Amino acid sequence: MPSSRLVASVAAATFAVGLASHHAVAARQASATLPLGTSASLGGLLSSTLVFLNADTNKDGALTSAELTAAGDRWLAAADTAGSGAVDSAALTTALNAAMPMSALASAFNMGGNGAQPETADPATVAAMMSALPDHAPATPLRPRKVLVLAHAAGFVHSTIPLAAKTIEALGTKTGAWTTTITYDPADITAANLAQYDAVFLASTTGAFLDDPNDAAATAERRKALLDFVRGGKGLAGIHAATDSYHEDSTPPAPGGGIGALLGSFTPGATLAPVMLNQGDRNHDGKLDRTEMDALTGAWFRTLDRAGSGRLLQSDFAFFALMVPQPSPAPPVAQGPDTQVGTWPDFNKLIGGYFKFHWFDPQQITVKIDDPSSPLTSMFHGRSFDVHDEIYTMGAKSWSRDNVHVLTSIDYSKMSDADKALEEHPRADHDYGLSWIRREGQGRVFYEALGHSERIYAMTPILEHVLAGMQYVLGDLKANDAPSR
After folding, report:
1. Where are the beta strands (DSSP E) in 24-137?
2. How does residue 472 score in pLDDT terms, banded at 50, 70 and 90?
3. Vertex 438: Cα angle to 433 and 442 (nearest 5)
4. What is the CATH number that goes with domain 3-106+262-323?
5. Does domain 125-252+352-474 have CATH number 2.40.10.120?
6. Secondary structure class of 154 (helix, strand, coil)
7. How far apart are CA 233 and CA 198, in angstroms?
8. What is the pLDDT of residue 26?
9. Could you tell me where in the chain the CATH 3.40.50.880 domains are found?
10. Whose CA is closest to 150, among 115, 105, 190?
11. Taking the CA atoms of the chain, what radius of gyration do you get in angstroms?
């Protein structure tokens, strides 16, 4: 064989072997999943939101594998300006930034209650909640009960507010334990209107949710009406951001610091491109091609589709944040006593405390059952369990077992040192209540800190816990509510 033909044959064979190896690696990845961490960074949270919004092209609130694959192919095509068939990190960074502008976050995060507050829950999340509802209430109502759900947020507006309101309505309707009225108008909190109800439920109210900034008299009347309602023998329940109300930081971040600085330094391209190369570059050439990109987005989908449904809601896709490593080196975290102060002390004590810090959704924690003998925790059968959500911690000056009867709490011993280190102003006692009850005058209060994510409302034991809490505040389910200490 002439030397030129021999060289060509060897080159062709080498190329074929390399190509076959490349496709074989991609094929192995096609059945693989990716590891998940236990805590999300801000960059991971924002990236997961932007990727979901960009990939959900039909805007039905869910992603299919085909949609995610198509999104990856769009990013690759936009990055491959040279038409080489493969892109490096710099080109991918530029394409991702163009595909996912930061302005898209405005539709997902409503800070300060400035946008129109949604009042209708996504049908898919409602369906998931409805399928998880318990069949029966733990107690028989002493008489017909009425609950008023207040779903107005004056600060951060959680996407789950309409779902939380719908959940309370559905729990009462299915079990016959109560009937429900839902309002987004704090003007409905008056003595005359509350007289017809047995309990008020706060659906992730935030900020000064009762106040009218232009009418001090109306504000005072609403506040008095709520306090008198509970102290006179009625009930109050709240979920998640009900404790992110009536408090403020006495020492705000210095100019150029705080969450604004973190947001200002974030771009999806700079965050995601290195992660994608690390996860998807199977032949280690520092680039991604179409085969690798498709294998990568396929691995993402399989990792996140834990139920095997072939469809990811945004609360499912939120676990994407756990694929994005925490920044290294870790940014400094504020230490020492927290600087939060209450702005309505009566309410702060009434609800049990005020928020000071949260780990980002979907933080993994182990829920400890503090009072396994309570009828409000019987659904857990005394066994701890893991959950993923945005996990609240309370200001040290506002929350204490001297004021509340703790039902569940974070099992701090099960958290990794790395996750513990993320907490700003860590509580010296490492005591983190999640749900509790307490007496207020002749009335009763129940609070559940979980509930940021839609997935919480599709967990039957949590719904049973809320149902029991509601029956406690209504006066139909008796429980030991003496302070835990």
Report:
1. 62-63, 86-87
2. very high
3. 170
4. 1.10.238.10
5. no
6. coil
7. 9
8. 47
9. 125-252+352-474
10. 190
11. 26
